[in-house]
Design goal:
Keywords: Membrane, Transmembrane, Transmembrane helix
Distance between the termini: 33 Å
InterPro entries: MED33A/B (IPR039638)
Number of strands: 5
Shape: elongated
Structural class: mainly alpha
Protein name: Mediator of RNA polymerase II transcription subunit 33A
């Protein structure tokens, strides 16, 4: 507020103004006199106080026309700030427009003249005071809720305030009406006029008011038509969403008032309002668009041009959706199971939204790409190969459970109003995604070759066929198959199961059955009136006891409803004691792997079996003992390959780990002296057996067998190494529990099963959490398990030391050694730990085995193995005796296979032990088929374009292996391939594969020995040997990557003699018959996805993938000859950047395939770790080293190369980081480390780009490539991932915008700042104003 003392210098000015009004002096004379007075008083111009003086005189003079001319002169000569003066007038005049209509007219004219001169405020010396004065006059900070200190920010708020207040004024004016009694009514409220009569003066006044309302609309339209002011209002729309929504509602009210006969809207109002609407539409669209860069436009148009998909075999077909295929195939790999829900990964965070945004695709194409990729996944199942690999059930789980759940997440997000601004496919109406799903599923019927069902799905398909036929004709029907031959002939196809899965989850209504009623052979079916064979589930639900025959039937037929699952679960945890184990076996059988419509419930129920009611309250004890047989049955059912894969797909590993800890702790504390199976059960179940099943299931969840080298190769804070620890699983599980309690989750943090449970409830599916879900789980609560875990880590870190002799652990180890080597106990050569204590235990069972708890045995195993290996190395113990003794130990306690594998794996990496000669005498010999195995491996590799030297050059000399490896091989081949040994081999197999990682030769020896033992696993064993070649061979991995690019892009190569010539996903991953003609036929992509989890060092992949994408772009540019027939310069890129549109479209189709392949391989290989390295190291090094300038290219080709690399980078980041907002997300155990998170990595990369644009660093590559990359990356970020820009600092955005303006990319620079959020509002406004 201006005080009397502050106004002292202004008294002469006030006197001069008063005298000028009395003498009717002209504005120029008045201006000279005022300027003279201010100069004498030492006051500079423009002046904030002068504007206040003028407003005061305007009030006193009652709107004298001369006073308006003085104000006009002061604004035009910059004696006052136009911004400040208009703000004062706006606050003063608009509220009093009815009483002072003429002043309102002058105000509108003045505003129309000076509203476009606001930019002059930026250069005024008193701009800070002007900003403060405008803010105080209009109370902008109060309305926005944030302090306004920048000129650009105050201009945005001011201009929007004027437009909004004018709209409010017009709506109020038109809402008033005069009735016949001479009273003014406003929305039904009557107000008497002052005089009560109408004369000519009153009519003129009313006409003036109507004209003013039209003038106000014209002024708003004029503001919208101006390029700069329209840009300012675009900023207001993006940063003031609530205020803008009110403004839009006011415009709709004006439109309604023009149609209201009782309103006071003039007859010209509809036409004027129409002009305003057109101006708003055009003005708000005058922003940067992808079509200003034809290359970017072509990249974003690929999805619409390749929506035919076909079978995905041709070049360009399904190119944008290649990441779906690669991601789905990668999660089928047994060596790399998921710990989070794949449905959330597909939809909630990364893959689906990333592809939709980066490709600017509509949801019909996205859903179609997702479904066809899942169908191809099923089509590629490896049913013809025997071995411990996932069968088609796991792939059907992805198609019929994970994909529908992922789609439901996307649809629910939209319908609940949670859709993020990352969508770039246009304005979405509510329900558009659900409609897109319906359209997609109708189109899906055209893909007949992909819809052929596997045998395991035939019965279920026929049930859906009958149900659809019954629904279409209005007949009720039970879920059964009437004719026995109906089980072998599919009357429908996979679309029937897909539609059924969507109906079950509420994505479609039951009218979708009409789509199916006329397809296939449904119309010819004879619907039976009564079932010939009642469903076993019907009998069970009616109360039939779980007899042996009923159990067998239920194990083969999955449950189809929640009620069935709930009853079988209830029977397992609280039913008759003799039925509990059978019920658990049923629940963890076909119902776990094939209950596709309710599979998310089935996995929840299965895991809840591990925490039965009452256990948590009684802290184990007798409650655990009572449930022992049930727990054993459940764990046995969940230990199959497909069950593990299904649980992994739903992200159940963290909860499983938390549930297994108390089981291991309790049963590991019991001896084997007393069986825990119920009497008359016919089965003997010991605590050791139950412990072993639970313990081995636990260690399989976190890759315990991986060598210590892999803990350090990934660098500090590397995310990939986190899953090598039990703590990671527990931290992730506790994070999920915290998110259920109301903390933040599901944005940039990892999603959890708690959210999945909420989704199940939203879909009408009940869910009750298990007891362990309500408390945090930490290792400290399980002292015995923690003691083993610490010992396990110590064993990996260093050799056994630090324990004094005669320690109880050594005494137990000696007792175990005595048991293992009974025949040698009387000789001096019998191995011992060196303890002087008595190894003979008083507590032995009738068979001579010591009576010990499992934890005591597990703790002693490393010392037992060390003593045995030492004795064997010193020739005091024969290899055969040692192998027999170890086998006895594993038979005694199967869980000991885990510490045996752990110890051998650690010792191999140290290289202390001598080599064992595999000569067929002391150790088994692989000579019988080693050369054949090597030849087949070589043929497999050659078929994928990989050529490595033969590892054996020594003729017929016996091969040698490190003693720990030979010991583990000798032990594993003693087991028969039977159900009883599956659990041990499921742990020993990966451990043996890890131990044999010293080179490809070791694994080939292992393969030769196992191929002799299990001939039906021959193909699987040979492929495993082929995968091991890449473990420490970077050159072989690079050759394989080149082959992947070559076959996908259909690059001329020798590979095309054996692989499909058309390229695409079919050539990359195969067509489902890659095992049909022998082990040598395997697609390069499948080879890579099976081998990359074995790589010790993955960090080089980011550099090499970047080079391959760049090389592909060069080749595509050379083939397209983009400079041969130029059609003119690309807008915004100068005369050097030319292309031919048809050639460009063809190249872009191939380019999207190259970038999709590169980004997908990078994402599945290393996630945020490799993507962070790509942005922070690989890309900067590539540009600074001049890697893009090694060969001369045409300028158009270099433009293409830069844009393709930009597309590759953006797509890689979108897959790894997602495209949703990330601000405010705090660090958590489930998130990537700070140096790999988006805001950090992207900030570093954008600072690098800004430095290069500003000349702070020198870029060695060709300037055309550099410029096209920078422009392309920013353009894609602005168009496809605008929320990324919110992660950047304002100063970085300013530098980037300055560089873009220097390159004449003014629109792109403005668009970049427009999306910078409130913090960049001022900078964006200043750039818009120029």
């Amino acid at each position: 507020m201006t005080t009397a003392r502050d106004m002292q210098p202004w008294r002469p000015v006030m006197e001069v103004t008063k005298l000028a009004l009395m003498q009717n002096d002209g504005a120029l004379v008045w201006g000279v006199d005022v300027a003279t007075c201010l100069h004498e008083a030492g006051v500079g111009l423009p002046s904030v106080e002068l504007a206040q003086v003028l407003l005061q005189h305007l009030r006193v003079s009652a709107g004298n026309a001369a006073m308006w001319s003085y104000i006009h002169h002061a604004m035009s000569s910059q004696m006052v700030s136009c911004l400040h003066m208009l703000a004062l007038l706006t606050q003063r005049i608009i509220p009093e427009r009815h009483q002072q209509a003429e002043m309102y007219t002058f105000y509108l004219e003045l505003s129309s003249t000076f509203i476009f001169s606001l930019a002059s405020t930026k250069s005024m010396p008193c701009r800070d005071r002007i900003v403060k004065a405008v803010d105080e006059a209009l109370q902008l900070s109060q309305s926005s809720g944030a302090s306004i200190t920048e000129v650009g920010t105050v201009i945005v708020h001011f201009l929007f305030a004027i437009v909004a207040r004018l709209a409010d004024a017009v709506s109020e004016d038109w809402g008033m009406r005069t009735d016949k009694l001479g009273k003014v009514s406003m929305h039904g409220q009557l107000v008497s006029l002052a005089d009560g009569h109408e004369d000519s003066k009153e009519k003129k006044l009313e006409q003036l008011k109507k004209n003013n309302s039209l003038t106000a609309l014209h002024l708003m339209a004029k503001i919208m038509q101006n390029k700069r002011s329209a840009g300012i209002l675009r900023l207001a729309r993006g940063n003031l969403p609530e205020q803008w929504e009110k403004f839009a509602q006011k415009l709709h009210l004006l439109e309604a008032l023009t149609r209201d006969p009782l309103s006071m809207a003039p007859k010209e109002a509809p036409e004027t309002l129409g002009h305003l609407a057109v101006a708003i539409q055009q003005g708000l669209r005058q922003e940067w668009r992808p079509n200003q860069l034809p290359v970017i436009q072509s990249l974003l148009s690929i999805s619409s041009r390749t929506s035919s998909f076909g079978n995905g075999s041709g070049l360009g077909r399904s190119a944008p959706w290649l990441p779906f295929d690669i991601y789905m195939e990668s999660v089928m790999e047994r060596r790399r199971l998921s710990v989070t829900s794949n449905a959330d990964t597909l939809a909630g965070l990364y893959v689906m939204k990333a592809l939709q945004s980066v490709h600017a695709a509509n949801w019909v194409d996205v859903f179609l790409g997702l479904w066809t990729a899942a169908l191809r996944l099923v089509y590629r199942d490896r049913e013809s190969t025997e071995g411990p690999v996932a069968r088609v059930e796991s792939r059907l789980c992805m198609l019929l459970s994970i994909v529908p759940i992922a789609i439901s997440i996307v649809i629910n997000e939209e319908e609940k109003g949670q859709a993020r601004p990352e969508s770039t496919s246009g304005d979405e109406k509510k329900g558009s995604r659900r409609a897109a799903l319906e359209s997609c599923l109708q189109v899906l019927g055209q893909f007949e070759s992909l819809l052929v069902p596997p045998p395991v799905a035939v019965v279920t398909i026929n049930q859906v066929v009958v149900k659809a036929a019954a629904y279409s004709c209005g007949t009720s029907i039970c879920q059964f198959v009437a004719d026995s031959c109906f089980k072998f002939y599919a009357a429908g196809n996979m679309r029937h199961l897909i539609v059924e899965a969507c109906i079950a989850r509420g994505l479609l209504d039951r009218s979708a059955y009409f789509w199916l009623a006329g397809s296939g052979t449904v119309a010819n079916l004879q619907i039976p009136s009564s079932p010939s064979q009642p469903s076993p589930w019907s009998a069970f639900m009616e109360g039939a006891p779980l007899t042996s025959s009923l159990r067998s039937a239920l194990m083969l037929q999955p449950a189809g409803s929640q009620a069935e699952l709930d009853k079988i679960y209830t029977t397992a945890v609280s039913g008759p004691e003799e039925e509990r184990a059978a019920a658990a076996t049923v629940l963890c059988g076909a119902s776990l792997t094939r209950s596709w419509n309710v599979q998310e419930l089935a996995v929840q129920y299965a895991v809840r079996l591990l925490s039965p009611p009452g256990v948590a309250e009684h802290r184990g004890g007798n409650a655990f003992l009572a449930h022992g047989p049930m727990l054993h049955a459940a764990l046995t059912g969940m230990s199959t390959v497909d069950a593990i894969n299904v649980l992994s797909l739903f992200g159940m590993f963290p909860e499983m780990a938390a549930s297994l800890l108390p089981i291991c702790e309790f049963f590991g504390s019991l001896t084997n002296a007393k069986p825990i199976s119920p009497p008359n059960s016919g089965e003997e179940l010991s605590a050791h057996m139950l412990f072993s099943v639970a313990f081995l299931q636990l260690v399989k969840l976190w890759k315990f067998h991986r060598p210590p080298l892999e803990h350090c190769l990934l660098g500090s804070g590397a995310g990939l190494g986190a899953d090598l620890s039990l703590e990671y699983l527990l931290q992730l599980r506790n994070l999920q529990l915290s998110s259920q309690s109301g903390e933040k989750s599901g944005k940039d943090g990892l999603p959890d099963q708690m959210q999945q449970s909420k989704r199940m409830q939203a879909n009408g599916t009940a869910y009750s959490s298990s007891p362990t879900k309500n408390t945090l789980v930490v290792l400290d609560s399980f002292p015995k398990l923690k003691a083993w875990y610490l010992q396990h880590q110590a064993c990996i870190a260093s050799t056994l030391s630090g324990l004094v002799r005669n320690n109880p652990v050594h005494q137990i180890a000696d007792r175990l050694l005595s048991m293992m080597f009974k025949k040698l106990n009387k000789s001096a050569t019998a191995p011992t730990t060196g303890s002087s204590g008595n190894s003979a235990g008083p507590l032995d069972d009738v068979s001579g085995r010591p009576i010990l708890t499992a934890w005591e045995i597990i703790a002693a195993v490393p010392f037992v193995i060390e003593a045995a290996l030492t004795a064997c190395a010193q020739n005091r113990l024969s290899p055969r005796d040692m192998t027999t003794g170890l086998r006895d130990l594993v038979d005694y306690l199967p869980g000991t296979i885990a510490p045996i594998v752990s110890y051998c794996s650690a010792e191999v990496s140290r290289g202390f032990w001598k080599y064992a000669s595999m000569n067929g005498q002391d150790w088994p010999s692989p000579a019988a088929n080693l050369l054949m195995i090597q030849s087949e491996v070589k043929d497999i590799l050659a078929a994928t374009g990989v050529h490595v030297p033969n590892p054996t050059e020594g003729g017929n000399a016996p091969v040698s292996l490190p003693l720990p490896v030979a010991t583990l091989i000798g032990l594993t081949i003693t087991f028969k391939l039977e159900k009883a040994s599956d659990l041990v081999l499921s742990v020993a197999g990966p451990g043996l594969e890890s131990c044999s990682g010293g080179g490809p030769f070791s694994m080939q020896v292992v393969a030769a020995l196992w191929a002799q033992k299990v001939r039906r696993w021959h193909d699987y064993i040979v492929h495993s040997a082929a995968y091991s070649v890449f473990k420490q061979n970077k050159e072989a991995t690079l050759q394989l990557l080149r082959s992947c690019f070559a076959v996908t892009l259909s690059t001329p190569s020798a590979l095309t003699n054996k692989l499909q010539l058309n390229g695409g996903v079919g050539a990359l991953l195969g067509h489902g018959q890659h095992f049909a003609h022998g082990p040598e036929t395997i697609a390069p992509g499948m080879m890579y996805l099976r081998s990359f989890p074995l790589l010790h060092d993955i960090m080089f992949l980011s550099d090499e993938t970047l080079v391959l994408v760049a090389d592909a772009a060069k080749d595509l540019g050379a083939q397209g000859d983009l400079d041969s027939d130029s059609s003119g310069p690309l807008p915004g890129n100068g005369g050097r950047l030319r292309c031919v549109q048809p050639s460009l479209a063809t190249c872009m189709s191939r380019a999207v395939q190259a970038t999709s392949l590169g980004a997908s391989l990078l994402y599945v290989s290393g996630g945020t770790t490799l993507v962070a390295k790509l942005f922070t190291q690989s890309l900067p090094t590539w540009f600074l080293s001049g890697s893009g300038s090694k060969s001369p290219q045409a300028s158009g080709n270099m433009v293409l190369e830069g844009f393709v690399i930009a597309h590759f980078a953006v797509l890689s980041g979108a897959l790894a980081w997602g495209v949703s907002a990330s601000k405010g997300i705090q660090a958590s155990p489930g998130m990537a480390p700070l140096n790999m998170r988006r805001h950090y990595v992207l900030g570093l990369h954008m600072n690098f780009l800004a430095s290069g644009m500003g000349g702070e660093i020198s870029v060695a590559c060709d300037h055309t490539i550099w410029r096209s990359y920078v422009v392309g990356f920013i353009a894609l970020m602005v168009t496809c991932t605008p929320v990324w820009i919110l992660d950047l600092e304002v100063e970085t955005l300013r530098k980037l915008a300055t560089g873009l303006r220097f390159w004449h990319e003014h629109h792109l620079a403005t668009a970049l700042l427009e999306r910078g959020g409130p913090s960049a509002l001022g900078a964006a406004a200043e750039l818009t104003l120029g």
